[in-house]
Amino acid sequence: MGARVTRVFRTFNVENRARREISKEKPTPAPRHPTARLDALANRPEIQEEISRKDDRLLTLLKDVYVESRDPPKQVKDQSVQYLPCKHEEKRLTKLGHLDALDVKKVPKGKISIVEALTLLNNHKLHPHIWTAEKIAEEYSLELKEVTSLLEFFIPFSVQEFPTENRKAI
């Protein structure tokens, strides 16, 4: 509904308004600064003389320069494929239990996979006296500070199933 109202005002007297805008005189542009014109400078004889004059001091310096170039020795291309150099990261095998089909096999040192993270969080939750932060850091090649932060801020969920006879009571 609002579009119809705005369209009426937008199209009202369009032709007259367009003619009025077209018939207006165009504003004159601002005058340019006299040094901004290069063609006025190019016609001056002093500048032309300066351009065509040879500088003897620069010519003697140029004559002293001697460049000797040699092509590098041609190398016979080997048939083997040459790979670009890349940064080799030290990797470790993952420590997985029954979920090894779901996860990656090798992880860079200092990092863990998602399955490993869930496993170590669950182990720490079930046996905190055995799976301490120091043991986890040593086992998974992690920094102790990162492991303590991981154990502090990430807690796995615990699923509780209630027996059928207690469901009615709940």
UniProtKB/TrEMBL annotation:
Pfam families: UPF0240. One of its GO terms (biological process) is mitochondrial respiratory chain complex I assembly. It comes from the Eukaryota. InterPro entries: NDUFAF4. Signal peptide: none annotated. GO terms for cellular component: mitochondrion. PANTHER family: NADH DEHYDROGENASE [UBIQUINONE] 1 ALPHA SUBCOMPLEX ASSEMBLY FACTOR 4, UPF0240 PROTEIN. Belongs to the NDUFAF4 family. Binds calmodulin. Interacts with NDUFAF3. This is NADH dehydrogenase [ubiquinone] 1 alpha subcomplex assembly factor 4. The lineage of its organism: Eukaryota, Metazoa, Chordata, Craniata, Vertebrata. The gene is Ndufaf4.
